[in-house]
Amino acid sequence: MNVVGAGPEVFISYRHHDAREIVDRMFDYLDKDLGANHTFRDVEGIGSGDLIRERVDSALKACKIMLVVIGKEWTEKGDLEQKRRLYDPEDYVFHEITTALRANLPIIVVTVHNADLPDKTLLPAEIRPAFGRLAFQVRGNPNFAGDMQSLAQAVKDSLLDASTPRPATANAPVAVSLFGHSNFFFWWPVWALAFAFGALTWWSNERLAIVPADTTIQHDAAAKQIVLTIPDASATGTLKTALEQKAKAEDGFPQRIADNKNYGVLFTTGLLLIILITNIRMRGPWSLIIVVSIVVLTVLLAYMGAWDNIFTSLALFRVSISSSGYFYLAGVLFPAWLVVVFFFDRQAYVVFTPREVRVRSELGGPELTFSVFNLTITRRREDEFRHWILGYGSSDLTIQTAGENGQEFIFFNVLSVGTKLHALREMYKDSPVKITA
User: Fold this and answer.
1) Were 306 and a residue from 140, 211, 252, 301 both cysteine, which residue would form a disulfide, CB within 3.0 to 4.6 Å?
2) Which CATH number is 176-180+348-436's, of 2.30.29, 2.60.40, 1.10.150, 2.40.128?
């Protein structure tokens, strides 16, 4: 190998028989666009294995970015045992890429001659991380100039990023992690209200007795008592249990239920609203307007005592839930919410570092690694009520990676979005990363 000029910053890795002619054109273009002596390529041949390693290691120490150029025969079978050349430990391309990965160099994959990107599962594990990164296509005329313009810009952005010092301070984080959350995260008001109304019902100390339909009621003014008369044959299970408990000098009516007419209405309205807003997506202020209007109307009707008339007209006298019912619902929902929010939701994540982003988009899925060059992070328009009231200021984020193998990932209901985006702006302030709030 021969270093063209002094102090190269861009290392071009390729196979001679596979892409020599177009690499020559790429080299000339970059030499003019970046300036002379900024690009390294092999121009004389392969040489011995020891010489390859010595020269590659020397060149890569000076370079700040690698281009891996792939043609249609890049992974061809080359030895007598018909193994792919990349699995040969003496293969110079394998050594170039693994050396670059160990040095944590940015890698841009470039396909030529209409070649496809190789199947990562067929590549040696040591070089697979290079193929979750930025990828470009360079075609022949008449597309060569346009393709090279895009590639050259990515190279310049990468060189700028690699040349920018990044002190380890609070303003320049080493890594930023974030997690999305399922819609079950928004169910916290249900268990919170269940605990609250359960406690209010308990403290009211009013008891539940189930009586049969033929019960009669009388007011004994002299004794200042209200007397219920229940035929023995019609006695319900709760009444029989109460008699047994009284015989033991125990509380005959342990179940507590509030006489307050509004607890059940407010709780069930809140439950129905949570079901509605976690299943219907509304963007912008409309969600806030609709939900707040429903809540205000519900509270106003309760304050005016109108729910009795409404339910009476519907042949429903009241909505009542015992303290046991509230606590049972809260006791089931709260532990389930904790497990989902703090365990299952965290199995899908994205970790941003100055040079790469690691993404696991689903529980049990693989972790994918991409270059941050030309990465786009977009904060999606919020559902005002869902995100700002129930989600503590959360937002949905879209992450778009660049290149031929670019992918889009959407993380819903990300908490502390403002803080995360501020940290990402600090991390990528001198990098070609687009962050849209």
Assistant:
1) 301
2) 2.30.29
